Amino acid sequence: MINRLGLFIVLVMFVLIQTGCAEQSTRMSLNSSNPRVIWEVKPQADLENITGEQISTPEFKMSDYVKGVVPGTVFTAYVEAGIVPDPNYADNIYKVDETFYNRPFWYRTEFELPSSYSEGKRVWLHFDNTNRFADFYFNGEKISGTKTSTKDVSGHMLRSKFDVTNLVKKSGKNVIAVLITDADQKKTRKAKDPYGVACSPSYLAGAGWDWMPYVPGRLAGITGNAYLVVTGDVVMEDPWVRSELPTLQKAELSVSTDIRNASSSPKEVVVSGVIQPGNISFSKDIRVEGGTTARLSINKDDIAQLVVDHPKLWWPNGYGDPNLYTCKLTCSVDGKVSDVKEMTFGIKKYEYKMVDNVVGYPVLTFFINGQKIYLKGGNWGMSEYLLRCQGKEYETKIRLHKEMNYNMIRLWTGCVTDDEFYDYCDKYGIMVWNDFWLYVAYNDVAQPEAFKANALDKVRRLRNHPSIAIWCGANETHPTPDLDNYLREMIAKEDNNDRMYKSCSNQDGLSGSGWWGNQPPRHHFETSGSNLAFNTPAYPYGIDHGYGMRTEIGTATFPTFESIKKFIPQKDWWPLPTDEQLKNDDDNVWNKHFFGKEASNANPVNYKNSVNTQYGESSGLEEFCEKAQMLNLEVMKGMYEAWNDKMWNDAAGLLIWMSHPAYPSFVWQTYDYYYDPTGAYWGAKKACEPLHIQWNASNNNIKVINTTAKDLKGAIAKAAIYNLNGKEVPAYGQAKQVGVAASNIAEAFSLNFNPFNLAYGKKAVASSSTGASKSASMVTDGGAGSRWESAYSDPQWIYIDLGKEEKIEKAILKWEAACAKKYELQVSNDAQEWKTVYANKDGRGGTEQIELEPVTARYVKLAGISRATQFGYSLFEFEIYGEKPKEIKELTPLHFIKLELTDVKGNLISENFYWRNGVNDLDYTLLNTLPEADLSCRLVDKSMSDGKMKIAVKNNSETVAFANRVRLVNKATQKRILPIIMSDNYATLMPGEEKVITMEATPELLKGGVSVLVKQYGKAEKNKLDIAD
Predict the structure, then answer these.
(1) Which site among 114, 435, 588, 765 is 20 to 30 Å from 613 CA-CA?
(2) What angle do CA 253, 327, 491 make, to 5 degrees?
(3) What's the pTM value of the predicted model, to 2 decimals?
(4) Does the structure show a pLDDT above 50 at 24?
(5) Distance of CA 765 to CAs 757, 769, 802, 850, Å?
(6) What are the distances in angstroms from CA 750 to CA 735, 899, 910?
């Protein structure tokens, strides 16, 4: 996958690490990005009876080879060579003969030593990752395992390092041959043999999932960096800098590394280091016997400078700066540098507590540097389904997560093996929930010892990264006892329990997995969807207090029309598959991209019907995609805001399934495969902002969310309500001063969309209730989702105190399914003597509108005589009406909510926007009747050399300009400018309103100038501004 943001990989063939003396350590890349290195790939079967010893000689010529891609896979090499049609497009990848790739392949390359090499040096050959099995040969000799062994290196996370000093040719060609063997399981796409976790350690998604297809070869190949390193006889391995934080003002550092003496004689070794910032210098001597490895450790008892006053701490995104330190280690023998290692680390302290929620269930809660952290983020499967994401392209992806205001990525089943992923998580303050390679399956790991070796290498390789927040044994299950115990004990030893080891990704203090199908925001505010009946302690499905720490919840997510055109053939654009096809059809191209039965978890039928019923039927794919973005935005924002609403009362964080796409598809993503942000991206970005104001779609409550480490004081929360014509209706708005403690929430006020309801906000008293969340007050809160529930017996009653005598002409009862079969309405002025004004002997539930003879009273009672079900009386709202005040204007059925949060100086901190139908919930079809607005666009500021600009979009009309999408295209090429970082999109502008949007892209993409295209919802896209480069 090409990174068009321009965060491109800079080729460095020879890395010379200056050490302050004449000696240097040399590293030579053997990746395909080195133009002097060409990898040749060919099936082993085509080289029958030819040995690795023969293949790894200069005399051998590999005819009819395919040019390999390193890092990469065998299948990717054939794709890049054009032998396989674009696997992204249509159903191309499903037509590939997988049996051709599901077999062993040879890799072969030649190289010459760099001119900087000098006699007497050690030469090391490194392969960071190979999948699934590998056997290595060099200059005619087998260098892995034994002469007769096979599948010597087992697992995709195991590093291979070979001392080839005695084999390397100082001049002329050196030859490497690697035999890559694919996994033993799932040899064909439709094979019935279980894949599961039996092939682990491997890229488990390679056999297909409900978001990426089966990949021929199952991602077998040289999947990590290959390189040559020239050193002295003594090298350092797995250096590690630990930090302890007794207080926030003092850090205690310790440094350790293995020292390997590759020679046969003992060596007196001096290890020196420098930590920056702070210029902390240290050194220590150690004697290492020939052919052995010794562990060297340095701490505050050795070097007082390793106690750092006022350290710069690493913080997750939103809570502070992700400060990083570097440590450069040099080991010397006899005054000459033998090896140099440089690593990056962060000073931080992770803590974890099981904190009981309001009903006493334990919720796993994260603390960093003493600060309680509310988790916001997403799941990440494969970086790219063919492993074509490399190097600095990771910066693009992680930066997009940072821009969504996330602070955590869950690395599902540990499917990323590239160090750069962690490097950029460190840089941008994104914590990593780091799984191992296990998930719910019906078979065990076929090679547990290989699993253990890979797990050990993973921890040693990655433990310096401050972004790693937790190690997790398995997805949605527990590892077998043997592996579970091994992982726990190994992590305690190798990571010193600096990070928690957790066996299971969704149990034991976590609140399960799901929902996965599209659900409206109100649904998420009203029910947690927890599915932990099997948890310890157990609690039932759908419990009110089951939000907790959720590691998976998601929905189908349609990409933009411009992206869909790149992978769905035009002949298949319209009409969309029928409901029946979505449920049962294997072969249509939509299903191949996971809008169909292959992604039934995402409930594509519900998704399609939600778009059609909420926003209206479409006449073509482009119109459907536009409407789908509104659903994406609303649903994604609603999920996060529902968890925000319960912060610390019940919820400790939310990770959606998924935030990052690996394949062009219609599920589990925020931005799409081509980096075009969907509405889901903008919904997540808004809901996860560090200081945030939000509306509860269930009870109309307005809350302010603070996910920072600083208190917010003296802020003003404001809500303005607009009719469909864009006119503000002041009677429905409110404003209030609010303060919010660090990492906490505060209620500002509740909106009353029915000021004619005399019962709103008034005191309610009931004969019984089944709990605080179903108390009598629920019937007067104006919320469509909250309800009163009585005891399961007759009779029961509930009355409302209007506060003073009022003229009453009408009552509305909004029942849940458990309604009254027989009841009376009664009135009183003292709550002692009651008069019956209405009786119903055949209640049917639903919404009952009851016209009354005008009567004056202070108290109104619903007296339940007999229930219609076995359950208690269950009432959403008990509304009471008299004469409508003439000074209050009624809202149009569809109206808009605009929220603003400003600081004490009046500066805007957060704004939010919603559309609501107060008559027919979720019916937004009136948006299609909005007239076209007069929009203009102007350039506020630009710095094209930096790829940054600001534009302002203004609504010059007297009507609403709803959901205006802004996108950039290159004037010269007419191609979309992607990836691009934007501050906002799909913004609604009220009459006369102007919004400034900041943008950032690689300068290379802007050459030739750009056109700014603006599309108002339901209207034609127009070029509103041209910007020269």
Answers:
(1) 588
(2) 60
(3) 0.94
(4) no
(5) 18, 10, 12, 21
(6) 10, 12, 18
d(Cα 518, Cα 529) in Å, to the nearest integer? Answer: 13
Question: Which strand ranges, in their side-by-side order, compose the sheet holding 981-982?
Answer: 935-943, 948-955, 994-1000, 981-982
Cα separation, 991 vs 198, in Å, equals: 61
Question: How far is Cα 1011 from Cα 70, in angstroms, rounded to an integer?
Answer: 38
DSSP state of 760: T
What would the mean pLDDT of 125-136 be, rounded to a whole number?
98
pLDDT digit string (tens) for 872-887? 999 999 999 998 887 7
Helix, coil or strand: residue 228: strand
- Gap between the terminal Cα atoms of the chain: 27
| pLDDT at res. 516 | 86
How far, in Å, CA of 213 to CA of 208, rounded?
5
Confidence of residue 20 (pLDDT cuts 50, 70, 90): very low
pLDDT tens digits, residue range 26-42? Answer: 899 999 999 999 999 99
Q: Please, which pLDDT band fits residue 441 given cuts at 50, 70 and 90?
A: confident
- The answer for residues whose C-beta is within 8 angstroms of residue 249's C-beta and 6 or more apart is 309, 310
Q: Which residues, 6+ apart, have CB-to-CB distance to 890 below 8 Å?
A: none
Neighbours of 870 (CB within 10 A): 7
In this structure, the number of other CB atoms found within 10 A of the CB of residue 969 comes to 17
79 Cβ neighbours under 8 A, 6+ residues apart? 86, 87, 386
How many C-beta atoms lie closer than 10 Å to residue 177's C-beta? 26
- Contact assessment for residue 369 and residue 348, using Cβ atoms and an 8 Å cutoff: yes
User: What span, in angstroms and rounded, lies between the C-alpha atoms of 851 and 849?
Assistant: 7
Give CA–CA dist 703/638, Å, rounded: 14
CB 726 within 8 A of CB 990: yes
pLDDT in tens, 54-112: 999 999 999 999 999 999 999 999 999 999 999 999 999 999 999 999 999 999 999 99
Residue 92 CB coordination number (10 Å): 17
Cα dihedral across residues 179, 180, 184, 186: positive or negative: negative
Asked if residue 604 lies in contact with residue 585, where contact means CB atoms within 8 angstroms, the answer is: no
Q: Is the peptide bond before 85 cis (omega within 30 degrees of 0)?
A: no
3-state secondary structure 289-339: CCCCEEEEEECCCCCHHHEEECCCEECCCCCCCECCEEEEEEEEECCEEEE
| Separation CA 511–CA 549 (nearest Å) | 6
State the DSSP code for 731.
G
The answer to whether 15 and 341 have CB atoms below 8 angstroms apart is no
The answer to whether 325 and 277 have CB atoms below 8 angstroms apart is yes
**How far apart are the C-alpha atoms of 1028 and 21, rounded to whole Å?**
50
Please answer whether residues 693 and 702 qualify as being in contact, where contact means their C-beta atoms are separated by less than 8 angstroms: yes
Note the pLDDT of residue 442: 65
Locate tokens 């890092």: which residue?
A: 71
The span from the CA of 680 to the CA of 639, in Å, is 11
Q: Are 529 and 546 in contact (CB under 8 A)?
A: yes
Q: Which amino acid is at 574?
A: W
- pLDDT at 22 exceeding the cut of 70: no
CB 40 within 8 A of CB 67: yes
Please give the torsion angle defined by the CA atoms of residues 731, 737, 740 and 744, in that order, rounded to the nearest 10 degrees. Answer: -10
Give the contacts of 652 (CB within 8 A, at least 6 positions apart).
355, 363, 364, 365, 366, 374, 375, 548, 549
Question: Two tokens at 917?
Answer: 């139908």
Q: Is 761 left (phi over 0), alpha (psi -120 to 50) or beta?
A: left
CA pair distance 243, 246, nearest whole angstrom = 10
